[in-house]
Amino acid sequence: MRIRAWIVATLMIWATTAVAEPNVRHTLDLSFGDDSARFVYEGQLSHTTTGPVLVDVGYLFGDETGDLGHVGLKVKGDVGAQYLQVEAALGGTLFWAQPDEVDEDGGALALTGEVYIVPPQATRLRIVGELHYAPSVLSFNGADEFYEVGARVEYEVLQQARVYGGYRVARMEFDDAGSVDLDDGFHIGLNISF
After folding, report:
1. What is the rounded average pLDDT for all residues in the chain?
2. What pLDDT, on the 0 to 100 scale, is given for residue 48?
3. What are phi and psi of 20, to 5 degrees?
4. Mean pLDDT throughout 171-187?
5. How does 156-194 read in b/e, with b if 16+ C-beta sit within 10 Å?
6. For 151-163, how does the pLDDT look when each residue is reduced to its tens digit (9 = 90+)?
7. Helices in 104-178 by DSSP H: which ranges?
8. How many other CB atoms sit within 10 Å of the CB of residue 84?
């Protein structure tokens, strides 16, 4: 039931972005580790003079930890670094967790920040860091705090395909049950744009 709802949400967001901006890039991202797998769709809603407005929806399935879904909205642009190609994205992401070890679900509206760095001598490489954080005031339904921190190194195999490896920690604090890890470990992935 949970997966079906996220698939429907993904299709609805895809349809919205395809109609809003029919000639823009869409991205599918699949990553997995020992005990988890994540699927993310990202599409462009519009384009401002400084960069795109992006929407994404994703689902993280943890074999032993539970599930984590999200829907996010962010703006992305160049940060103006002089000697490096650096882009950043800022926005908000709504997370919904259904952990296996806790009898309650939790939600959080997290502030989102992402950084993309391309080294000058290795233009096919990209270093990515991301942070999502929701304090207690932005957490609800039993959740008291949420954060996800991740870093990865990507390699552009084709213009439309990247492979990557990285590390991710997603943790939600609950009022009664304490801290629950929804993901904590290394992962590899594939990112395809079309």
Report:
1. 89
2. 74
3. -65, -45
4. 93
5. beeeeebebebebebbbbbeebeebbbbeeebebebeee
6. 999 999 999 999 9
7. none
8. 11
Q: What is the pLDDT of residues 74-115, one digit of tens each?
A: 999 999 888 889 999 999 999 999 999 888 899 999 999 999
Question: Is pLDDT of 14 > 90?
Answer: no
**Cα 97 to Cα 113: distance, rounded to the nearest angstrom:** 20
Please report, as a single letter, which amino acid is at residue 15: A
Neighbouring-strand partners of residue 71:
57, 94
Which pTM does this prediction carry? Answer: 0.88
190 close to 30: Cβ distance less than 8 angstroms = yes
Q: How far apart are CA 60 and CA 30, in angstroms?
A: 10
Cα distance between residue 117 and residue 34, in whole Å = 27
Residue 23 DSSP class: T
Q: Extract the runs of DSSP E, i.e. beta strands, from 33-177.
A: 36-47, 52-62, 66-78, 85-99, 106-118, 125-134, 139-140, 143-158, 161-174
* Distance (Å, whole) CA 175 – CA 32: 29
Instruction: Name residue 102's amino acid.
Output: V
Half-sphere exposure of 68 (CA within 13 A, CB side): 26
